[in-house]
Specification:
single chain; alpha+beta; Beta-lactamase; Transcription Regulator spoIIAA; Jelly Rolls; six-stranded mixed sheet; five-stranded mixed sheet; elongated
């Protein structure tokens, strides 16, 4: 049911994903709600389809989610009032606007013929009297110029060219006698000085602008984005003007329902009698709903229900804690740029450089809530297009609210059904996300939890490399297959085979202890081992890992001395051990043995140094 919006070509639309599926389910659940009546006091509005029902959410970076009739055109009506108020603030300044219209709720109907007795001005710009007074402030020397300025302003807000529904305009003009009474009353009191019919014509046309849910969501997102249009990047209003607009929307935007709305929904919003409602999630997104049947105070019944559920389900009330969403992804990289600490052969390094882009890592930071979680799962969906696996590192994620948990839960389940493997790291037992994640077995869901990102990268690299190499059980083939001995002839290899000793280690067993004498080096035949050092305070940090064909303890060949790190078997492991004294003894008869090994060792160390440099560059 999720709809694309052909008229809104500037933005991007998501046809799938947790938010789109949520909106579709919400739409289907509320569509049978058939209470309320379509507005008839403007005759042309009475022709609306009562079953027309659309929902749209636009994010502050221009992403659009829609469901139902989100592309169906309707007239903006009173939803225009906050925007023209913002235009007046921008054009005339706060002091001048306050001379024309106040900021207090009225407690009266939106079309009441009443002014503030103290200041002789309309109570606020969200009622008809205030909106008509604000219309007079539209800049321009002629009615045509003022109309052009107004339309340019609304075009900028929507990010596309809008038009006026001439039939609705004519209907409003021909039947708007109550608004005429308001205008002439303000002329009589000196609140407006222009000819009332000129002011009213602009006001009626303002209310007759055609929009869609997608337009209104993007206009709301412009307010959420501190006045910058999310798609075009055009700065339309200043943050101070946005603050004043949102304040009045919070107190006066929903007619006589404003107090209950603030209590239940807690978002700045404005409704219109054509059936539209838009709401603003500051710093995050804009919401818009279209459904013509209205309640007794003039608000869309389905629109109110949609906003209540979205606010409740995602914890969006204004007095919930908020942070900006742009910084949720601290860093993103591929395994072709930053590899695990597992030491690899020259051939394996070449494959990872070529194919490692298929493994992506996302580092998440800060608190997760609706806006930040939406951005995270959207990025996951984009990465899924060309990745075999994605790692999400939650090491710097401090918290997650119910909205984030809901979105991430569905995203994790989605990865379990199809797409690349998803690996989640750094989620301790007391983290809010723990309850949503698998227990640690890969299983059928293809979602894995691992303690840290380096372990995840190593495992995923192994999966990738398995498609390019035969089994790595080196016990089955000659020493000449080992990089450290590359370039030695058969005689040298035969001499080394006579000097090798084989050792077996169980998982967790210590192979080398930091501080011990360095009198031998090792080559892994099967299994794997981790190399770690002791940090100040006694903590351990893994600096590298080695697998089949890789060596460790080679510095004994150069300077002997003491071991500088611990080595523990990660799993059951078989190692080849070579005594330094025995190698030097062989080298007396075959000098090329030692020189070749040392040359290969230098190449290995150089490769590790370059890898470290690449990692540092990508970390900055």
């Amino acid at each position: 049911m999720s709809s694309s919006i052909p008229a809104f070509e500037a933005g991007t639309s998501a046809a799938d994903g947790p938010i789109s599926r949520y909106l579709d389910a919400l739409h289907d659940r509320l569509l049978p709600l058939r209470d309320g009546e379509i507005a008839t006091y403007i005759p042309e509005l009475s022709t609306a389809d009562p079953d027309a029902f659309g929902i749209a959410i636009a994010t502050v970076d221009g992403h659009l989610y829609t469901s139902g009739a989100a592309g169906h055109p309707f007239t903006i009506q009173s939803m225009s009032k906050p925007f023209t108020y913002g235009y007046a603030l921008r054009s005339c300044g706060v002091a001048r606007v306050l001379e024309q219209v106040g900021v207090e709720p009225t407690g009266e109907a939106f079309n009441s013929i009443i002014l503030d007795n103290v200041n002789n001005r309309p109570f606020n710009p969200m009622v008809n009297a205030g909106a008509i007074a604000v219309s007079e402030l539209m800049p321009g020397d002629t009615p045509e110029a003022r109309l052009a300025m107004m339309m340019d302003f609304f075009n900028d807000l929507a990010g596309r060219r809008l038009d006026i529904d001439e039939a609705v305009f004519a209907s409003e003009r021909d039947t708007g006698h109550r608004n005429r009474a308001i205008a002439y009353m303000m002329l009589n009191s000196g609140m407006i000085t222009s000819p009332p019919e000129d002011v009213l014509e602009l006001y009626f046309k303002q209310c007759s602008i055609n929009v869609t849910c997608a337009d209104m969501a993007m206009m709301a997102a412009t307010l959420a984005n501190h006045g910058t249009q999310p798609v075009t990047g055009r700065k339309i209003l200043d943050p101070d003007q946005i603050r004043d607009m949102l304040t009045l929307m919070s107190t006066c935007g929903m007619y006589d329902y404003a107090g209950q709305w603030a209590y239940e929904v807690g978002l700045p919003a404005k409704s219109g009698v054509a059936g539209g409602i838009f709401a603003v999630i500051p710093g995050q997104a804009g919401i818009a709903v279209y459904s013509p049947p209205l309640d007794q105070v003039g608000n869309s019944i389905r629109g109110v229900a949609v906003c209540k559920e979205i606010s409740r389900d995602f914890g969006l009330h204004a007095f919930s804690d908020r942070t900006m969403v742009q910084t949720v992804i601290r860093r993103e990289y591929r395994a072709s740029e930053v590899r695990s600490k597992r030491l690899r052969s020259v051939a394996e390094i070449a494959v990872l450089a070529r194919e490692g882009h298929r493994i992506a890592v996302l580092e998440v930071q800060g608190a997760l809530f609706f806006g930040s979680a939406e951005r995270l799962i959207r990025r996951l969906a984009a990465l899924a297009e060309d990745c075999m696996a994605i790692v999400i590192d939650f090491k710097r994620c401090s918290d997650a609210d119910p909205a984030a948990l809901r979105l991430i839960e569905e995203a994790v389940a989605r990865f379990g059904e199809a797409g690349p493997d998803l690996v989640v790291t750094h989620v301790p037992g007391d983290h809010p996300l723990r309850a949503l994640l698998p227990g640690g077995a890969r299983g059928t869901g293809r979602v894995l939890t691992l303690p840290d990102t380096d372990t995840a990268l190593e495992e995923l690299e192994n999966d990738l490399l398995s498609g390019f190499f035969e089994t790595d059980d080196l016990a089955r083939f000659a020493l000449k297959r080992i990089d450290l001995f590359h370039g030695l002839d058969e005689g040298c290899i035969k001499a080394l085979e006579g000097a090798v000793s084989s050792f077996q280690f169980s998982a967790g067993q210590q192979v080398i202890r930091e501080g011990d004498d360095a009198n031998a080096f090792f080559v892994v035949a099967s299994g794997a081992a981790s190399i770690s050092v002791t940090l100040p305070g006694g903590q351990r940090k893994r600096v590298a890992s080695v697998g089949p064909g890789q060596s460790f303890g080679e510095m004994a060949l150069i300077d002997g001395g003491k071991r500088t790190a611990d080595v523990h078997a990660d799993s059951a492991m078989i190692c080849y051990a070579f005594s330094v004294d025995r190698i030097r003894e062989i080298a007396k008869a075959r000098p090329e043995v030692l020189t070749t090994i040392l040359q290969n060792l230098v190449i290995s160390l150089t490769t590790r140094l370059r890898m470290a440099n690449d990692e540092i560059r990508n970390l900055v």
